[in-house]
Amino acid sequence: MFEILFKYPISIFHKGKFVFLTPWPLWLLFIAILAAGALLFWHVRRNHGMLSGLRPIAIWLLETGMVALILFLIWHPALSVATLRTQQNVVAVLVDDSRSMSIDDASGTREAAAKAALNDGLLKSLAGRFQVRLYQFGKEPERIPNTDHLTPAAPASRIGDTLERVLAESTSLPLGAIVLLSDGADNSGGIDLATIAAIRRQRIPVHTIGFGKEHPDRDVEITDAVVPARALPKSRLAAYVTLQSYGLSGSKTRLTVKDNGKVLASQDITLKSDAQPQTETIAFNIGDAGPKSLEISAQPLSGEENPLNNTVTRLVDVQGHKPRILYFEGEPRWEYKFIRRAFDDFDDIELASMVRTTQNNILHQFPAGMSEHQLEEFPAKPEELFPFEGLIIGSVEANYFTPTQQQLIRDFVDRRGGGLLFLAGRATLSDGGYPSSPLADLVPTRLPANRGTFHRVFTSVELSSQGAQSTICRLDDNPAKNAARWKAIPQVADYQEVGEPKPGASTLLYSLPSGKSKQPLLVTENYGRGRTALFATQGSWRWKMWEDHTSKTHATFWQQMFRFLVNETPGQVVSTTPKQVLSDDTRVPLRVEVRDKEYKPVSNAKVQARFIKPDGSTATLELAPQPLEEGVYSGEWTAEKPGSYVAEIIAGREQEELGHDMLTFRREDGVAENFHTSQNRELLEKLSEETGGRYYKPSETSKLSNEISYSEAGITTRETRDLWDMPALFLLVLAIRASEWLLRRRWGVV
Predict the structure, then answer these.
(1) Bridge partners, residue 732, by sequence
(2) What is the pLDDT of residues 522-558, one digit of tens each?
(3) What is the pTM of this model?
(4) Within 13 Å and on the Cβ side, how many CA atoms surround 693?
């Protein structure tokens, strides 16, 4: 329709420059329009006849518009557009040859449709004007002489990498345009901005032709699954599984988490409406120490088009070392005793506790291998506190800690990345002077300024919606049973007013004091590299005393709290990679953060990665420092074969070893093309739009050979296209005259 009204495709208007071909100056056009308008105004005002009010003005506007349009046409409007010179430019035709192109979309395979589009005139028409280079591509492009060499068998498609390679090969050639035939099912996560910028700098338009259905008729796909990369033994973890379905709204399926064939957890879910992403949480116990390869799957349903996209793999490194928590208590109390009892059958974490029995006396209860002489008082130096991964502060006044110790506690969370838990009590938080101390920044709520916030009143406990998703409050892996256990949990005998949660904090539990609004009971927050929590009661020990002696409620809650404090606490060397499971990919980008014993960034370290391959052989890689990130080192390695890999990262400085870390990853082949198999029209349209090209349906390819000539890349010449004879302008003339006639007829002055 646009081309019918405006004579040319819309792409010409985007690329062309508007000009007037008449030799007369543009200012003369404006003067002529103003003069004509003034003359018509005088004429209408003098000869308005039976017209009154605003009616003469309407007639004047229509007549002035008509004269202005005629003058505009007299000035001969046109478009100046750059066009490719015939047979002097190269056009690269890229055909997706990955396995997703072999999908049969009822009318035939996508590859067959692409061949038909090329062989039914597109290649011939392009060859009549340009030098055509034909490529097939999966992970990388390959020149082919004709379409007979297309066999959709490539295990993955990398559109961005392919465009980069074609641009690199054509640096010495007059590349005028690129034609991309694909379903847009890119397996590399999209086309990065650097590739788009390189294409735009060379002004090369990328025209895309999309194949395949934009969504399946009947399918469910796991689009993502997020699990912690590291965990402690026997931790309760949560997998956040995102699904998308079509044609199965309201159907039920079962999510399952398996480790080496063993079912760790399963959960029935109901699928939501078509195309609506839904995220489900499934909790499970990770088990003993060691690397875990988790298989997360949704049970295939009857009639599914592609059951291969129902399963994903995720890796978790269950670490065997024992983190340490320092618990400093300001006075002997039942809560202290029962928190320590939670360690009776729990040997995954070591607890070193210090309780102030009198003003000048501290009772030490340290694990084996740690002497009280190592830490007679609360730490005052980084080398004393930073060996711990977690810190618990009980009922102790803020001014008990010196300014140096208060800053050290802050650095422990912010710089060290440790976990900090504040406990309620009669001599802490608002009643202990915390609101006016630097420690107030670490508390995840805005503490009231007044004292008298600690109340010895029995109150019930309520689980929040955020708490239901948190592993701290997961007493049972079944969400319904977990909620029921929290409803039946005994009351606590006291609570403390702690104010409103800060922005970004999560309230997991509430206390429900009689006659008052509910109060935050358990609040968590991320702070710097670490995390903080506030538990606003000293009465959780009653969960142990008032329930059956076989109940594990109290122990389970506190053991999960301990894991929360230490599980994400980093060491001096921390290594990461964007994807631990490489689907039909070989590149392993590594990022390593190195810090000294005070957890300050180290910029002069020597960092080396040692890889253990699936066959047991080894390889090493030296990592280079990042100039813009202090203490960060990076490198890229190639995983040559499928299988599981282990990377040991070692960092040192001169004769000092700063630390080491372990990283596991896995390469899987033949799986990438099982996912996102529908046509990604959004990606193809975005690519064309950003580079000055256009997206075409297969039925529109006949227009491509004409429109591809309009390009500023390659060897070009400028041409002008007349606009004065556009049908839209003649329709506008008729509309103006018809409007004036209809108005005059309605007002009875025709």
Answers:
(1) none
(2) 999 999 999 999 999 999 999 999 988 889 999 999 9
(3) 0.78
(4) 28
